[in-house]
């Protein structure tokens, strides 16, 4: 956004004043009365295609609404009307400057309307004083965000049309949309894309999705552009047959990760050499593998990044039990000897997996689909999972502490960190391996759960969530470390 204004907006204000912006903002952006909200709902459609979006804009020179899919630009070129208003946020775009323009006087009008809107909705929004250094625009964004996440709001909840066996995509999108730090990142307009305008960047498309979800609209969205981009960049998922939601989740993170790296300075790395993109900051953890020689007790340690943890569901039926089996030492046997660097010979060994570092979002994949040469089947056994999860017992630091009998004086580094997580999304698979359907539960606010079944969104209880046949489980870290940099 251009914070210094532009000559074209200044000339417009000199000729027509601020009244055109006041009217557009009051009726079609903030909607300061019930009548304004009703009028917007019935009249705010694209004059070219008749659709309510995406990203509706209003011409500031005349009465003309159009979506940002090229129609507002066509109007601007044909009529020489170069200023138009984004009806989601009230920002003014100048087609001659090719940028959104900041103006202090119009921002004051917008802030006043936002406060009236909040009052008309019965929402108590603390007043944010004007700040120096042209930060009024940031104050306006924060005010809008406060309204969006106020208690009992349903903004951010939208159904998704099934495009033909695309429930696997819809449930993953719902989980990502309700990932708190992803929401803050995209609503904060943090993504800077070098390929802007090409229509090929998946991160740009996801950014638009967040804007659509939090625009306040209730009609179901159609994800044809997202699906096309995924097909383009993950060709093994192309086609209208039912896909695996877990495979789609990993493929989506991979494409987002790669596109994030295309949109930022490639020198932006963490000290350990890992990518510093938003995907890795939120989803990446470190999995430690310790291989111990049974002859000399020599240890070979490797640490690999992971985005999720796949867990076998055979045996005791709880997430904690699955994690205990996952991190239990395993004897590799005589058929899998390794060459010990100390013994300089092939020896039997044991292998143990632990979590060296934890991600902000811990994603668990319960392996319910079994494929073998003899049979393909779905495991429908009930696996209980908690609303609150402590990952400390599965940490590498915890295992080291147990090995040395640690107390407060000699505990390994990291043993007393807070490793608690809170459940915020669950993906379920209903039916059989050949004829199944995916749904999702998402947490909108603490204690407020909703079931997402393609275009249908219904309220759910926590008990209903915990009793469901979980397939993918998403937990968010309860306490974030001070030096966690999500920028």
TrEMBL record:
The keyword Mitochondrion does not apply. It comes from the Eukaryota. Its main location: nucleus. Keywords: Hydrolase, Metal-binding, Nucleus, Protease, Thiol protease, Transcription, Transcription regulation, Ubl conjugation pathway, Zinc, Zinc-finger. GO terms for molecular function: cysteine-type deubiquitinase activity; zinc ion binding. Residues 4-120 form the UBP-type domain. Transmembrane segments: none annotated. This is Ubiquitin carboxyl-terminal hydrolase. The keyword Zinc applies. Residues 158-478 form the USP domain. It is an enzyme of class 3 (hydrolase). One of its GO terms (cellular component) is nucleus.
């Amino acid at each position: 956004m251009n914070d210094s204004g532009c000559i074209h907006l200044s000339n417009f204000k000199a000729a027509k004043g601020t009244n055109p912006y006041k009217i557009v903002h009051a009726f079609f952006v903030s909607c300061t009365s019930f009548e304004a909200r009703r009028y917007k709902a019935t009249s705010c459609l694209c004059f070219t295609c008749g659709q309510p979006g995406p990203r509706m804009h209003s011409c500031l020179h005349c009465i003309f609404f159009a979506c940002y899919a090229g129609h507002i630009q066509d109007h601007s070129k044909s009529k020489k009307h170069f200023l138009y208003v984004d009806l989601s946020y009230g920002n003014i775009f100048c087609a001659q400057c090719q940028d959104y323009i900041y103006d202090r006087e119009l921002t004051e009008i917008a802030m006043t309307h936002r406060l009236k809107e909040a009052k008309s909705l019965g929402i108590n929004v603390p007043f944010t004083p004007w700040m120096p250094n042209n930060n009024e625009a940031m104050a306006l964004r924060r005010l809008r965000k406060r309204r969006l996440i106020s208690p009992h709001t349903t903004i951010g909840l939208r159904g998704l049309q099934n495009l033909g066996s695309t429930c696997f995509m819809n449930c993953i999108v719902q989980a990502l949309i309700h990932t708190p730090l992803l929401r803050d990142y995209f609503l904060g307009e943090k993504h800077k894309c070098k390929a802007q305008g090409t229509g090929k960047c998946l991160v740009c498309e996801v950014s638009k999705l967040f804007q659509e979800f939090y625009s306040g609209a209730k009609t179901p969205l159609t994800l044809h552009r997202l699906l096309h981009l995924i097909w383009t960049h993950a060709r093994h998922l192309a086609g209208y047959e039912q896909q695996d939601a877990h495979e789609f989740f990993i493929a989506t993170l991979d494409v987002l990760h790669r596109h994030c790296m295309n949109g930022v300075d490639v020198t932006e790395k963490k000290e350990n050499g890992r990518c510093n993109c938003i995907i890795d900051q939120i989803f990446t953890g470190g999995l430690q593998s310790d291989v111990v020689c049974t002859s000399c007790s020599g240890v070979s340690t490797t640490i690999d990044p992971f985005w999720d943890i796949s867990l076998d569901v055979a045996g005791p039926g709880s997430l904690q039990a699955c994690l205990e089996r996952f991190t239990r030492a395993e004897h590799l046997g005589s058929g899998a000897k390794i060459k010990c660097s100390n013994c300089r010979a092939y020896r039997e060994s044991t292998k143990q997996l632990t979590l060296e570092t934890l991600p902000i979002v811990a994603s668990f994949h319960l392996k319910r689909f079994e494929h073998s040469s003899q049979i393909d089947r779905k495991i429908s056994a009930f696996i209980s999972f908690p609303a609150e999860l402590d990952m400390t017992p599965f940490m590498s630091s915890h295992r080291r502490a147990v090995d040395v009998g640690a107390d407060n004086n000699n505990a390994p580094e990291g043993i007393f960190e807070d490793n608690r997580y809170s459940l915020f999304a669950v993906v379920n698979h209903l039916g059989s391996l050949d004829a199944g359907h995916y749904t999702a539960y998402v947490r909108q606010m603490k204690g407020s759960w909703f079931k997402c079944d393609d275009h249908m969104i219904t309220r759910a209880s926590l008990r209903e969530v915990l009793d469901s046949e979980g397939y993918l489980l998403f937990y968010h870290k309860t306490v974030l470390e001070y030096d966690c940099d999500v920028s």
